Structures are given as C-alpha cells and as structure tokens.
Amino acid sequence: LKEQLQAQMPVFEDELNKRVAMGLGS
C-alpha cells in the first residue's frame, strides 16, 4: 500500500513525512 501511494502521490508522501517530522519535533 505504501509503495502504491508513493508511486501515485509522491507529494502526499512528502507532506506526510513533513507532518511526522514536525510531530516528532525533529
């Protein structure tokens, strides 16, 4: 599922990573 999301919506994956990083305070 994650691979499919990356292939179809790389921008969404990037935004998700940013939100996770912000949530962790990195």
Q: Would you mind describing this structure in some detail?
A:
One of its GO terms (molecular function) is hydrolase activity. Its EC number is 3.6.3.14. The chain is an all-alpha fold and 26 residues long. The chain contains two helices and no strands. The protein has helices at residues 2-8, 10-24. Helix 1 crosses helix 2 (10-24). The longest helix is centred in the middle third of the chain and has 15 residues, at 10-24. The radius of gyration is 10 Å and the shape is elongated. The chain starts with a helix and ends with a helix.
The percent range for helix content is over 70%
Strand content: under 5%
Q: Mean of the pLDDT scores?
A: 80
Q: Distance between the terminal alpha carbons, to the nearest Å?
A: 26 Å
Rg from alpha-carbon coordinates: 10 Å
Uncertain stretches: none
Characteristic terms for this protein:
single chain; 26 residues; mainly alpha; 2 helices; 85% helix; 0% strand
Brief summary:
The chain is mainly α and 26 residues long. The protein contains two helices and no strands. It is elongated, with a radius of gyration of 10 Å.
SSE layout and pairing:
Elements: H1 2-8, H2 10-24
